[in-house]
Specification:
The structure is a single chain. By secondary structure, the chain is an alpha+beta fold. It has one domain: Transferase(Phosphotransferase), domain 1, CATH 1.10.510. The chain has helices at 13-25, 66-69, 80-100; strands at residues 2-5, 41-49, 52-59. It has a three-stranded antiparallel sheet, covered by helices on one side. The longest helix has 21 residues, at 80-100. It is globular and about 50 Å long. The two termini are 21 Å apart. The model has no long low-confidence stretch (mean pLDDT 88).
Length: 108
């Protein structure tokens, strides 16, 4: 499992709750063909520490990033067939975000 812990001094409570709401919204339609390609939350909980309350979001661990994955091939170039499959998965995930969840991904 992977846990994302919000920092109580970096964001306000509304921003933290907004992230939880958006993350829960991503669970909208698990039957959509793009759903498996979107990272969704498994659970959430709050922890109280010396600096206040921290929201914790629990996810499955992510795979290695593409820049690291491509090091496995000669000249760091993915074979075209593999790149096509990767792009198909990426586009299905984006389709789910846009058409089903009405979310536009603008961050890194």
């Amino acid at each position: 499992m992977s846990v994302k812990i919000t920092s109580s001094d970096c964001v306000d409570e509304d921003t933290t709750k907004h992230e939880l709401i958006i993350t829960q919204h991503l669970m909208r339609n698990p039957s959509h063909e793009g759903f498996p390609y979107v990272r969704t939350m498994i659970d959430s909980f709050e922890v109280t520490g010396l600096e206040g309350v921290h929201l914790c979001l629990v996810y499955e661990p992510m795979r290695e990033p593409l820049w690291l994955f491509q090091r496995r091939w000669e000249n760091r170039k993915l074979p075209p067939a593999l790149l096509k499959v990767y792009m198909r998965f990426l586009l299905r995930g984006l389709d789910y975000l846009h058409s089903e969840c009405h979310i536009i991904h603008t961050g890194a």
